[in-house]
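S2.1 Query sequence (Cadherin domain-containing protein)
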Amino acid sequence: MEKSRILKQTLFLVCLIQISSSASPPVIAAFSSSEVSIAEDTRIETVLETISVTDNDVPPDPIVCNIKSSTPANGPFTVWKKDGETNMNERPTFTNLPANLTIKEDAPEGKVITVLSFTDPDPYQDIEPICSVWPASEKYKFTFESNSNKLKLADDINEPEPLDYETTNQYKITCILYDGYLYNEDAYVNLAVLDVNEEPIFKEESYSCSLYESEIGVSQCDLGLTVTDPDSDKLDLVLLSGNNSERFSLINNDKKLTFGINYDVDDNAMPTDVLLTAGAVDEHGLTGTTKIAITVKDVNDNTPEFTSSVTSFVVSETQELGALGTVTALDKDSGANGEVTYTVQGGSQALGYVSLVGDGGITYSSKYPQR
Ligand SMILES: *[C@@H]1O[C@H](CO)[C@@H](O)[C@H](O)[C@H]1NC(C)=O
Ligand SMILES: *[C@@H]1O[C@H](CO)[C@@H](O)[C@H](O)[C@H]1NC(C)=O
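Output structure tokens follow.
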């Protein structure tokens, strides 16, 4: 069995009266006895002593009674207002808290969340709310403006839209009031951040793609596109119209790009450099974009054709050695693929007396023997 302990506690009580013009001091009846013994198993909220305080002013001024000091300090005793009594100090209270409020994640700096309203039935001193924010690491995003009682998003933090649903979607802002003796009870704002649809974001501002001219779907390039959606929406990738984007198409789950038509750069039929815009469209129709710079390389896909009408040269006995004329041919391919070189493939016995130079010139190079 536990031995009962003896705890001796001395309480000093102070009662204050509101200043009024005809103030007469409150009359405090003394404790009925100077010492009260209580059992160890006394339940909390058991009344130990009743004191009576009266004020003789008409009407009576509010009276506030509190324990001023005790020995040992912080003893487990409080002064209670007795039921039915008036003019005892009461807790200050917020009249619009607790509250569950919402705010959009794109709310601007300085946005007012709510205007706190509070009362103190028996004001003894000026009261001013003090609010704390959970999570504390984001306390700086909120501010309480004491002259207007506005609880709002901070407006001096250089973040145009301080909230982000994807990072924090719930705040608890707890506010306290203290009238010098008593605190308010349970006042908070549960602030839910509402998601606002945001557009998909491509990792890069532009991507490049190198293709060879080819039939539809043949030449392909890897794009390495990376696109994310802040709201984790399902995305569709498309090539936006413009710059003949229909000549190209995305394939292989948008990892690759190829031709949507038979693409031909010969004779400048179609451009070798094309800038397209790719778009990622989310479920709500918001689109993020990136550029795709396409280079189409020529392929040696054309055979050169002779364009000169001359098909034979006639040499008379008196013909001097020297140039006879030229043959010309054209190749539709571009660049080096379109350059033509000329070679002799075969011929009659006259072949030994003429020669061909690189640019198509035919020269009578050695005298045909006279009979
Ligand atoms: C806030 O919402 C919670 C959860 O829905 C609910 O339990 C609570 O009563 C609400 N508080 C107020 C003040 O509406
Ligand atoms: C088309 O090309 C031009 C010039 O290269 C570029 O400025 C423009 O943005 C392109 N249009 C699209 C839809 O990509």
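The chain has four domains: 8-89, 93-194, 201-297, 305-364. The longest strand covers residues 287-297.
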